[in-house]
Amino acid sequence: MKPINAISLYDHGFVSVLYSSFSAKKVEELELFYLPKLNHGRLGTEFSRISFLMRVPMFILTQMANYDIKVMYAKSDEEQYFLPTEADIVGCDLETAMAMKAAIEETTAALQINPSALVADGCNQEVSQILTPVSRYVTIITEAKKSEWLKMCDAICEKKLSNRFAKVLQGIISSEDISS
């Protein structure tokens, strides 16, 4: 079930803010009073934290392992997979993108049987996901410092993994800064 404040992402995913400790005005006041010689903005970046409820493909979750981001799996009854559009496949012509899209759809359809069978045989869901395609959606609760989220978003954009995901997170973080 998608929360009311969720921002849709990809075909079946979403990102929703659970909690934010951003309070831009208060942090700015504290910085000016207690830490006048520091670079302004550093306190807010280092101490502000944000938690998200997300439904994202596994390839996004694997990126989080490279950063200091806490992740907790949430229960999800839906089993869905990210199937890219031609526009999602970058670095090639339209004909190649269409062929790659068809191959991904075919491979995903074949591999969808695997996680369900593993779970039915008693394998826990997290372990079964290791053996499934990285396009499988997972529902997770995450929490990290603002600086970690921004660092991950920059790296995702740099690697051209998922600019859409990174831009959504950056937009949420930016709006949390303003609205607090």
Overview of the molecule:
With 180 residues, the protein is of the alpha+beta class. The chain folds into 2 domains: 1-82 and 135-180, Gyrase A, domain 2, CATH 3.30.1360; 86-134. It contains 8 helices and 5 strands. It has helices at residues 24-34, 42-47, 58-64, 94-111, 113-120, 125-130, 146-159, 163-179; strands spanning 7-9, 13-20, 49-57, 70-73, 137-145. The protein has a 5-stranded antiparallel sheet. β1 and β2 form a beta hairpin. The longest helix has 18 residues, at 94-111. The two termini are 27 Å apart. 21% of the residues are buried.
Layout of SSEs?
Elements: E1 7-9, E2 13-20, H1 24-34, H2 42-47, E3 49-57, H3 58-64, E4 70-73, H4 94-111, H5 113-120, H6 125-130, E5 137-145, H7 146-159, H8 163-179
Antiparallel strand pairs: 1-2, 2-3, 3-5, 4-5
Largest sheet descriptor? 5 strands, antiparallel
Detail the poorly predicted runs: none
Span from first to last CA? 27 Å
Average residue pLDDT: 77
Order of strands in the sheet with most strands: 1-2-3-5-4
Provide the succession of SSEs. EEHHEHEHHHEHH
Number of domains: 2
List keywords for this structure.
alpha+beta; 5 strands; 180 residues; 2 domains; Gyrase A, domain 2; 8 helices
